[in-house]
UniProtKB/TrEMBL annotation:
The lineage of its organism: Bacteria, Pseudomonadati, Bacteroidota, Cytophagia, Cytophagales. One of its GO terms (molecular function) is hydrolase activity. This is MBL fold metallo-hydrolase. Coiled coil: none annotated. Its cofactor is Zn(2+). Residues 12-194 form the Metallo-beta-lactamase domain.
Length: 211
């Protein structure tokens, strides 16, 4: 499995494409808001000859969902989130204009993720892990064969997700990190929703919020 990342929008949000040798592709947290950003994503998919088969959100804060409807309009694929984040998703249109994003186009999921039930595409299987605290329905996606996690806004290099937004809770977030991320092998690469990738061992050793 290959991870391709793109940084979009004013929040410098990381959008990820997961794809394997079959050419099938999953889009996670499309943050592309402007047409130029949408074209970057579409052009990469076309250049690589990828077939988009699924849209996933780790969680549904505004910066991670800008491009949901664009992806649905362009590729007509299933769209899955954790059901506990449905209210988070549906709240975005109310505050998007005040954040300076009047052109936000809301999308509705076609189904829901269940932690413990794998996501499959091509030759790839992802484990869905429930990791609330930053958002009530936050999930992460773990690929054991490559020791890779798409972690959303749970754990960052040297930091953790904020917990002062609606549905956030600090103690819950720390518990999620300790039980859902720090239990993974040390060499696991964590691809976060913002900033550079890190590893489980690096954050266990040096993250000031975890020591």
């Amino acid at each position: 499995m290959t991870v391709s990342g793109f940084t979009f929008n004013a929040f410098s949000e990381n959008t990820y494409l997961l794809h394997d040798a079959t050419g099938q592709c999953v889009i996670i947290d499309p943050g592309c808001y402007e047409p130029a950003e949408q074209q970057v994503l579409r052009s990469f998919i076309e250049a690589q000859g990828l077939q988009v088969v699924l849209l996933l959100n780790t969680h549904c804060h505004i910066d991670h969902v800008f491009g949901n409807q664009f992806v649905l309009d362009t590729y007509q694929v299933p769209f899955l989130i954790h059901e506990a984040d449905l209210s988070t998703l549906r709240s975005v249109p109310a505050y998007a204009p005040s954040y300076g994003f009047p052109k936000y186009n809301p999308a509705e999921p076609t189904g829901f993720l269940t932690p413990g039930e794998p996501i499959r595409f091509g030759e790839t299987e992802l484990e869905v892990r429930f990791a609330p605290g930053h958002a009530p329905g936050h999930v992460i996606f773990y690929h054991a064969p490559t020791s890779t996690v798409i972690g959303g806004d749970v754990l960052f290099q040297g930091s953790i997700g904020r917990t002062d937004l609606p549905g956030g809770d600090y103690a819950t977030l720390i518990d999620s990190i300790k039980t859902q991320l720090l239990t993974l092998p040390d060499d696991t690469v964590v691809y976060p929703g913002h900033g550079p990738a890190t590893t489980v061992s690096q954050e266990r050793r040096s993250n000031p919020f975890l020591n």
